[in-house]
Amino acid sequence: MANTAVRFLYSGIRVRDLDRSIRFYRGIGFRIQARGRMQHGGEWVHLRYPRSWHRLELNFYPRGNRFYEAPKRGTEFDHFGFYARDVHAWLRRARKAGGKLVEEFVDGTSRLVYVEDPDGICLEAFGPARPRRSRRSGGSG
Amino acid sequence: MANTAVRFLYSGIRVRDLDRSIRFYRGIGFRIQARGRMQHGGEWVHLRYPRSWHRLELNFYPRGNRFYEAPKRGTEFDHFGFYARDVHAWLRRARKAGGKLVEEFVDGTSRLVYVEDPDGICLEAFGPARPRRSRRSGGSG
Lengths: 141, 141
Hints:
The structure is a homodimer.
Chain A: E1 6-14, H1 18-27, E2 31-37, E3 43-48, E4 55-60, E5 77-84, H2 87-96, E6 100-107, E7 110-116, E8 122-128
Parallel strand pairs in A: 1-4, 5-8
Antiparallel strand pairs in A: 2-3, 3-4, 6-7, 7-8
């Protein structure tokens, strides 16, 4: 099988409240690409970030669905990674969208922040520790 | 902050055995793009799939590291999604690489298979239920 016949298309997470998660991810810049209902009653939403073809899939399984499981914190998933030229601006936006800051540090010349989405899924943004601001954008960072 | 200053770059999972996971993901077609060690001692590997810019990040935190947690099955992550023109060929390759088939079904005109990686992370491949085979490839599927 040639690799050209296979595509790595999306990364899918489980969410407990579809509307809440859509609000959060739209708030940080994702756009809804497609959505639908699964044969067995679950719902899915595909989101795309500008300039990324890879999709973020939100999956919702209602109680009683055969894939439903009570939410349980695990260690399989680590985090989604974003590059941000202005990490503080990204953080402000993520918090306004409902994200919770859980960690922030500087590693050499990079600043890293970690934010949890409404289900506790972790998102990292990294970028220059001291971003150069253009005169036009101004502000104190 | 314009969206152009932010990129959605990677999806990161935790692995218990870095070499084992690299073997599995290379076995299904990923290539190592970059790797390194974190300030605090963890290790990361970035993998890319042909024709996808989005990276899959493998994170390894040794025992005693401040991010180490005993492996625990959770519900945050659902699965990675692949489109495969020949789902059975994808499945053979994934099993040969060390994946475990956990579910297979046909939904309308689509075939879906679910495979677990060595840490139990789920991967879905979907494609036509009855792929047209070229004369050259032959085989019974």
